[in-house]
Amino acid sequence: MARTEAIRPAAAETAPRLKKRRRPFHVWVRDLGWRHLVGIGGLAFALFPIVWIISASVNPLDSLSTNSSIVPEGMTLENYRELFRDETLPFGTWIWNSVKIAVIASTLQIFMSAMAAFSFSRLRWKGRRAGLLVILMLQMFPQFLAFVAIFLFLDQLDELTGGGVSGPRGFIWIGFGAAVALSGWYVLRKTMHGGMARITGYAMLTIGGLLFLFALLDPSKSTVLVPAVGLNTHTGIILVYLGGSIGVNTWLIKGFMDSIPFSLDESAKVDGASQWDVFVRIILPLSRPVLAVIFVITFVFIYNEYILASLLLSDTNQTTFAVGLQLFSLGEYSAKWGQMAAAGVLGGFPILAVMLAAQKHIVGGLTAGSVKG
């Protein structure tokens, strides 16, 4: 045994070392190289417009001409400063309008689509299948067909509502206080034992009472209780956006909810949960990935939407970012290309922030769906 072990090292030393053969270049190109080339080409194709618009935003010549260099001489940030100095082109207001409209419309769309999808996926009622088919058929017609009808409808609403409904500001605090107090009462009613939930309930009741007290101390100041609905109003365009993609979103969310086991619903109902409890506490948390994906898609679409916004919003202080960009280029000899490029760079940050915030849920929503444990 010892002799055999002594022979093995000697045999290992005398054995020829196998040299790793290098793959020929044409074989590497055929197997892997072309993939790298396609990836680099696609990356360059995607990044070139971004690099060019950043270059134009710091170019002192105020030009978008392709004859200039990617790295301009005498780079300056004056175009970015002028964006916030020019009162005739309120860039900050446009960004705020776009973010506000996109967040409100996307949030309401997600909530309404989730409730509709839950009804179609988990409940059984007469006409459910026909309703799904009607929603699908309505998506076949382009939205452009409804532009004239939408414009006339909002014009009639503008005449009916006028400038909205005004009244004492205390009504708003009373409404918020009632909502918070009722939420706290609901939490206390559902929580039988002590703990953080009951502390939260008592805190919400206290906040609701303080809001009532604040309403009594501030009864005289007037404010808009119900905003105007019609042309050139954010409320009107939000209502239009709400009806745009609810059908498609309902189908997408329903497909995800169908993959959630029905045994979870049955177990919760055995414990005394209502349909609302099942929806809020079980289905919505499990559907978070697909909700995040649809929220990002809807936010990006509404944020960049131009046609409807340019048709329904005419006031400079009411327009959105996409509509306001065209105002930089209206003058034939006084177009502000450098400011337009700077506005395009800054206008992409809200979308980037939303994408980064929902990145984890987006990956989960794109990879999960049909497999649920």
Describe what you observe in this structure.
The protein is mainly alpha-helical and 373 residues long. The protein folds into two domains: 83-164 and 228-367, Orthogonal Bundle (MetI-like fold), CATH 1.10.3720; 169-226. The chain has 18 helices and two strands. Strands 1-2 form a two-stranded antiparallel sheet. Helix 2 packs across helix 16 (337-347), helix 3 packs across helix 16 and helix 13 packs across helix 18. The protein is globular and about 70 Å long. Residues 369-373 have low confidence and may be disordered.
Predict the CATH topology of the largest domain. Answer: MetI-like fold
Structural class: mainly alpha
Count of structural domains: 2
Nearest-integer average pLDDT? 79
What string gives the helices and strands in order? HHHHHHEHHEHHHHHHHHHH
Give a count of the beta strands, DSSP E runs of length 2 or more.
2
CATH homologous superfamily annotation of the largest domain: MetI-like
CATH class of the largest domain: Mainly Alpha
How helical, in percent, are the residues? Answer: 55-70%
CATH architectural label of the largest domain? Orthogonal Bundle
